[in-house]
Amino acid sequence: MRLLVDEDTQAKTLVQMLKDAGHDVLTAATAGLGSMDDAAVLAVALETGRVLLTRNCGDFAALHSENREHPGILAVYQDADRTKNLSHAHIVTAIGKLERAGVSLAADFVALNAWR
Predict the structure, then answer these.
(1) Residue 53: closest CA among 22, 23, 80
(2) Could you read off the pLDDT of 39-69 as tens digits, one per residue?
(3) What does the H/E/C string look like for 32-100?
(4) CA-CA distance, 62 to 103, in Å (whole number)?
(5) 38 vs 63: CA distance, rounded Å
(6) Domains of the chain (ranges plus CATH)?
(7) pTM of the model
């Protein structure tokens, strides 16, 4: 999968695990998006044809509601109960499950936590 990893999610370990799993990964830092607003980040995902991976669920859910013309948004929700949060391995596994299920991500907002 072609991914754009938002700056809140671009831990080196996660990025490497995604690459090791065969994903084409571009990080916000590599793309020069470090100080860009969320709308600009989503615009780059659209321009580059990459699914956005983010933990900034609320802001990107709002952007998704305003405009569904994007390659897809994968949202990783954080819970006060840390046992419910996704580890890096869980994120990679969830993306793999989505791919194997043949789920079309275009113009969709997907909570990865449901694919754990």
Answers:
(1) 23
(2) 999 999 999 999 999 999 999 999 999 999 9
(3) CCCCCCHHHHHHHHHHHCCEEEECCHHHHHHHHHHCCCCCCEEECCCCCCHHHCCCHHHHHHHHHHHHH
(4) 22
(5) 8
(6) 2-115 (3.40.50)
(7) 0.95
Count Cβ atoms within 10 A of the Cβ of residue 28 and give its class: 0-12 exposed, 13-18 middle, 19 or more buried. buried
Q: Report the alpha-carbon distance of residue 65 to residue 51 in Å, rounded.
A: 16
Instruction: State the CB neighbour count (10 A cutoff) for residue 67.
Output: 12
CA distance 116 to 107: 21
